[in-house]
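Self-study notes.
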Amino acid sequence: MFLSQGFIPTATAVGGSVLISALIALIPLVLFFVLLGAFKTPTHWCAVISLVAAIAIAVFGFHMPWDMSLNTSLQGAVFGVFPILYIVIMAVWLYNLTETSGRSHDVQAIFSAVGRGDKRVQAILIGFCFCGLMEGLAGFGAPVAISCAMLLAIGVTPLKAGLAAMVGNGITVGFGAMAIPVTTVARLGGNASATAVGATMGRISPFIALWVPALILVIVDGKRGVRQVWPAALAAGTGMALGYFLGANYISYELAAVLASLMSLLFVVILMRFWQPKETPEDQASAPNTEKISASRGFLGLFPYLLVVVILAVTKLVKPLAAWLASFDITFGWPGLDGRLLDGAGKVSTSTQFSLNWASSPGTMLLLTGIIVAIVYGATGHSEKYSYSFGKGIATLGKTIYNLRITILTIAVIMALAYVMNFSGQTNAIGTALAATGGAFAFLSPVLGWIGTAVTGSATSSAALFGNLQATAAQTAGIHPHLLLGVNEIGGGLGKIVSPQNLTIAAGAIKEPGSESKLLIGGAKYSLIMLVVLSIITVLASTGVFGWIIVS
């Protein structure tokens, strides 16, 4: 009888107060970040401890049945394995194929040539332009994982590689995976126009995107990097900013990140034909290439990355093919939860529906890419320098999974934590408390999106959590909903920089598990600076000073 009872999460579960409920709900998050940042506790233990705290709060504070809270954590953990870890593992494997085959040295030589032998220029090309392109096509952790690996290949130190990829990726996340977050937040935000929300985002994002390459220079080489390489940063930022504005407003919001990243890349490539840093310090120079790289070697070195872009683009942009792949998706209600979790109106929540999109997942596209790359590398690896085989490529996958075992555990537990907080009403209590600030909510609206992604690791999840709340708060405060829905996703992208899931992905990709606390401390300041800028822009737009930003 008990198992058939329904559960309605409420933002006033603790003492009938939104504020008290929100403060209690913050405990797992505060616990996680304090343990990670202040006490340098291993991330997987931070996640486990915070999960236990979240379950206890869900049961005793938010009155969620104990069996549902445990089952919710299980659903979250499984979601962490698929699709998230599926994508991460395949992305790291793809890079490991280039490393074990020896082709990564040729990749380093190619980016060294394009960047005129300057790691700082190459960091912009990879951590901002290429990472943005991958985010626009795939998302779900693959861009950061692949970009971190590529930055390592050109000689950027592990911690700097992780920070550069995470910070460079943040502004693109809101438009990631063919702008799924935009579509989601518009649908859940009172059925707002996704085109208008995307266009509004396309007018706000340039204010931040313009400066991100300079932040990457600061990460890689401090003030010296900005002073010596600012033209490349300006070219990349201008291309990205212009691409967002034109793509989201005049072409297609789904392709905004892809178009912006390609334009950014093009601007830098053109610049480097006429300009190069006057001086490249020895510590920022790529390893000198002692032999000439032939066109075929250069192509094979870049082959995995070129192929994955083509495969992801085709499977996303060719609608009949995308629909055919999606037809294999398997969706089912999570046993023991489906039908028991209700929304505020007493209706059955759809959050307990689990989708096994094995055919259409970016992870499957990465797996297909990896198999093709292993075949090609095996067929062309007959020389002594590149002795390789298909079997060695497949064996590399097994080693990749083993080396990521701590990352796998951590992400699974973190997603369990996110699901418990979401389903029990803890996350909603935090959001409701912020929305109660009235007119000041214009400043706090991006913060809500930031929190949503910081908790879940997904801007799409942030959209699902807070889309309706943002639209309701907009009506209450007299602010256009398209503005708040848009900044929810842009802020969400900035929140991904400090998301535990993203930190773990980056730590695994740079092959330094346990470095999450250093990445958190290093990335938090950049994330918060951009968040404050976004909040100020939101206030200016809501008061009419920047009224042109809002697209009705």
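Second protein, same conventions, sequence then structure:
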Amino acid sequence: MTRDANAALARTLVDEWARAGVTDACVTPGSRNAPLALALVNDPRLRVHPHLDERSAAFFALGCARASGRPAVVCCTSGTAAAHLHPAVLEASHGRVPLLVCTADRPPELRDTGAGQTIDQVGLYGGALRWFVDVEAPADRPGVGTWWRSLGARAIASATGPPAGPVHLNLAFREPLAPTGAPLVDAPGRPDGRPWTRVSPPRRVLDDDTLDELAAIVSATPRGLVVAGWGADAPLGTLERFATGAGWPVLADPLSGLRHGARAIGAYDPLLRVAGFAAGHQPDLVLRLGAPPTGAVTTQWLAGLGDQWLVDPDGCWLDPAHAVSRRLAVDAGPLLDSLTDRLSVTERASPWRAAWEDADRRARRAIDDQLADAEEPFEGRVARDVVATLPDGSTLVVASSMPVRDIESFAEPRPGVRFVANRGVNGIDGLVSTVLGVAAASGVPTVALTGDLSFLHDANGLLGVTRRDLDAVFVVVDNDGGGIFSFLPYAETVDPGPFETVFATPPGVDLAELAAAHGVPVADVEKASALAPVLTRALDAGGVRVVRVRTDRAANVARHHEVWAAVAAALAAA
């Protein structure tokens, strides 16, 4: 009797993933991927999100995985469909997001024969993967069930890491692709519902001698600094205890999750734009947690400093300026706890840290005074007010380019908001889909701060959005082009015509009409003071909505410089 191997493999993999805690999967139309798509849709433990566009599906899955910390599945057919997943695979790799990429393929006898919808999918994503398997076409043979179980479990373990990232299973299926109704090939799982193989993550800690050495250096260095970027992965209380004992200030990028609390210097970006302050506040030692900060000013300042220790548990070489003097491939939380326990005092009196905190207060007052009165919408104020307006427990997804930089420069530190961004490779693609994936997996109020180009670049992410039962608000800064290019040197050296054509690239699209085509309501903000109440109403109304704030690119650059000048004046008056 012929047994159904295609359905058996697909259902075995899905069962193994659900046992390991996978909850979300994205599927796209196709024939060759039918066995896996049907297995996903028919498993009640999974939320399955259908998509027409493969790139949108992949970024939606990426958003789910970012929000939940669990691997999410994206399933597509063969051919160019698989190529459309590549941008999200790269972001998952560099951003350390667990992603199960499942591409269907022709069996070996149909490859390189001119068969339709067939490309070379072996090694399609290059070195971006944590693991790749070109899975042989399912067949009924002895012992195959245990291999399938092990395959599913290892895919989860490899995607989870460390470091987390994408896994690619290239699944060859022979026809018939639909379930035949025949009995399945045997592939029983563990009887108690456990995954086939469970993997315990390593605890990465230093030996006592090295900890003693590092603690002695910290104790002997009153002018130290903690800099936290995305991936910092340290509890806020642990970081504050260390910074208090060491007498060091903390410069924390919003994406680190550590940009609040008693030791955070929120206005470090405007402060470091003041040449005298930057020169006079150079630390003797920098303890860096995770990736470099977002802003170029801070990263360039760090590049010129002396000793820098980089803490990254995965041992990644996060050092674009080639300035790191010591790399510590350990978990940040236990490291900071151990160092703090070895310090001679629980709180060091620190004129150094007090000077940073005083400058931070002066800068914050100068920023708020500059933003207080003008009613013409300004992108820096938009960033500040969005962060201030969000309810506790919400998530803010920030687009690359100017929005993430404006959050860093203008938003006041606050607890209760999780910041998410695709900063692995810093692209604008897939933003809409990522936001919707975050909303689907998190179940908390989700807001995106984006420019018009990022929003338009992933307009396909809105396809079918009204049927997804999601709550997400897109605050779109609409300046009819790429605003970040107006801050770069060639904005002043290139003639206006070529600059607009090649760099600013004004799309000339009415975002309200685009959103209306997808059934998404739009609320326009005409005055700066109106943003907070409009955003609050959009959150209360539920569903997917757009809040549009029109700004002028040239005026926006001028306002940024005015604010930075006001900060410099406030410091000079000290």
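Instructor comment on the second fold: The chain has a mean pLDDT of 94.
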